[in-house]
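User: Can you recover a sequence for this backbone? Please restate the input before giving your answer.

Assistant: Of course. Working from this structure:
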């Protein structure tokens, strides 16, 4: 099947919400024109002394990922943020990340690859770290030392030891953990350096880290 060109480009829309809210996120997004998405289970690690005292600091979360045209994705992000009252503390995070191509039942490609990065400097960055199972907390601790407020941990496992799971268009081997951390752009380098040094990411098989620009963002703590 041929490619459909859409000059506006595409965004990957993320919503990190409490367990049980993922279905509502999907419903709101569908109403805005998003055709579908994927829901994964993870856990949030936002630092809050009261939650830590109550033993609830590591709350289970649902991570909803959806791809759509940029305008549709940003409209959906705003609608999700409003209806779930994301501006209130500990209600979740909603953000978009520019992407260049989408391949599936109907393949679509941006008219210009440079559109994926956006024309203006991004205010926030998404730091994604893929590490062996058991290392996610070390990532969170290293990021916290550099000023991060917390993050989201996703367990990436196949159904069998020889299977892989597709996440972010990459094959993730079983027994891995993925850590998502949002940061202000001017603080991202410090977070990356702290995580890289703490986990020795320059060594073979220690993990991988990559940084992406954030488009629209709601619910990010100051």
């Amino acid at each position: 099947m041929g490619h459909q060109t859409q000059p506006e480009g595409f965004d990957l829309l993320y919503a990190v919400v409490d367990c049980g809210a993922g279905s509502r996120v999907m419903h709101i997004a569908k109403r805005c024109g998003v055709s579908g998405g994927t829901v994964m289970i993870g856990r949030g690690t936002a630092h809050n002394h009261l939650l830590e005292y109550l033993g609830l600091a590591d709350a289970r979360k649902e991570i909803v990922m959806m791809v759509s045209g940029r305008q549709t994705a940003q409209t959906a992000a705003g609608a999700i943020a409003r209806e779930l009252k994301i501006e209130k503390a500990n209600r979740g995070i909603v953000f978009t990340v520019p992407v260049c191509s989408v391949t599936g039942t109907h393949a679509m490609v941006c008219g210009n690859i440079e559109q994926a990065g956006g024309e203006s400097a991004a205010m926030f960055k998404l730091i994604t770290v893929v590490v062996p199972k058991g290392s996610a907390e070390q990532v969170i601790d290293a990021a916290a030392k550099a000023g991060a407020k917390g993050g989201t941990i996703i367990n990436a496992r196949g159904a069998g030891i020889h299977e892989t799971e597709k996440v972010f268009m990459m094959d993730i081997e079983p027994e891995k953990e993925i850590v998502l951390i949002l940061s202000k752009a001017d603080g991202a380098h410090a977070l990356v350096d702290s995580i890289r040094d703490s986990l020795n990411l320059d060594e073979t098989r220690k993990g991988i880290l990559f940084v992406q620009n954030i488009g629209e963002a709601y619910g990010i703590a100051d």
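That completes the design. Confidence is low (pLDDT under 50) at residues 1-7, 50-56, 104-119, 157-163.
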